[in-house]
Amino acid sequence: MIFEDSILTEMKEAWPHKWQEVRAYFEKKEEEYEKYSDNVKEKMDHPKITLLSRIKGAKLLREHELKILNKCIPKNQLEDGVTYISTGCTLCRFICEARWDQKIGKFKYMRDKFGLKFEDEIEHFVDVIDTGYAGFTPIKKK
Questions:
Q1: Other CB atoms closer than 10 Å to residue 26's CB: what's the count?
Q2: Where are the domains positioned within the chain?
């Protein structure tokens, strides 16, 4: 089994809410791997290698998110109607600026999709940090 105590500990840290799902997924992958012949296995990575790589990626992502959170303006400090600048336009749908709408508790921005421009909404980064959805990261006022 690929789940030594140290790996389980890392999985729980990397995915606190879904480490059991990840474990089940990789247990299945390991069972499938063991069915292959040695010739086929030579050409494949063992599921443990893939798991360790994903754990490393999850840790790096979490470190990046924490750095961003340290720069991010908290929701309770945002001013209604003020436009804010984000972090290099890379984390949230490539949105560089958005206007805070206190009434709905979201940012509004102009979206360009399939050649159409329209106003859209996006949540604050802290509201979506563990969901996998994009969120706007306000760093400073425009």
A1: 21
A2: 5-71, 75-141
